Amino acid sequence: MSRLLLLGLFAGVLAGEPVRFENTGWRLWSQREATAPRGYIDTTITRSGKGALAVSGNSNLAVHGGWEYNAGAVKPLGWYRFTAYFKTQGVEHPNWQVVPRVDWRTADGKRAFYPQYVYETKPEGEWTRTWLLMQAPKDAAGAVLQLYLSNAPGGTVWWDDVTFEAAEPPKDRKIKVAAINFRPSGLKSREANVEAFIETANQAAPGKLDLLLFPEGMTVVGTGIPYVKIAEPIPGPTTERLGRLARERSSWVVAGIYESEGTAVYNTAVLLDRQGRVAGKYRKVYLPREEFEAGLTPGNSYPVFETDFGKVGLMICYDAMFAQPAHALAARGAEVILLPIWGGDEVLAQARAMENRVFLVTSGYDYPTYIMDPNGERMSEAKQRGTAAIATLDLNRKYTQEWLGDMRERRAKEERTDMPWR
Length: 422
Hints:
By secondary structure, the protein is an alpha+beta fold. It is built from eight helices and 26 strands. Helix 2 (190-204) runs parallel beside helix 4 and helix 6 (323-331) packs parallel to helix 7. The radius of gyration is 25 Å and the shape is elongated.
């Protein structure tokens, strides 16, 4: 596998030992002189020990630009991994002010498709590693690596240990998901409700599953019992029974129940892993007045959970009326959002999938039960009671748009986190 190694100032092609080209390859770029940053090689702040590529805002309010490097030939539809380390000073919002990109080019030097932002990040000591595994567009013949600083007049970013290398395609990440459409009535206990839901799931969605979703408040619907009386601790009787189902089906399970802790009662969605263990829970943040009046307490966080197939986030019903919950989950890396729901606005829920470029899975009573892709298209829908929406999700598929490219990547690097929303 050939590998292009770009260490601070130096660049070379890795074929055994790297070949060094001093002071060649990298060039400073800005769209116009008035927005140009100051670029220099810093040998005092360096991760590699060979000098870092520094970009300073130079007190320029309109600064946008930085270092570029022509990485040479690439294979159309080939897979590549970009990795770089950066360190900042005076940069308040690195998610959109620190801008690493790969700009794909055709054989005649034109843009092959939209540039790809490198948006995955992880702090490593005093430096932050940023990386992305990406596929070259079908018309790509080359790539230009771009290390920019944008709209940070008092900031400086140092880049070091930059690599761009051919990579193996990502492993298959297809998962089979089922969402249950069922509404029991006339049952007098949470235990009876849970058993009815489990029986329905086993009949409507037999066979191997990776993820199984039940609706909001499965323990209370149709019983006539108040929320505060049916609430239980987590772990508790319902999570124990659902855990047994998860083990029997070797599936992750999500369900909406009512949780008691101390003096508080929460509308909670619980996540159980394939071994039946409680892997996480989400307490509904946005409560309608009816739930406040019924004695419930709102949650105050948007956790994202790592599974054996990827990252999932949970929302509950009224959360879909507001943009913040889904956005917070997507910003934390959620690829699938599970939405147990009683009833709500279908257009707003669809918008949550589309604006955040995530899969959305719903299980409802007075709301459709469906599996939706990041384009807002329903992949499967359970229209009758006692049935299941079932679909296979490809979590490695890119949902690009003709005029915008990949908005999941773009949103991660173009969102203005400095702007107050209140």
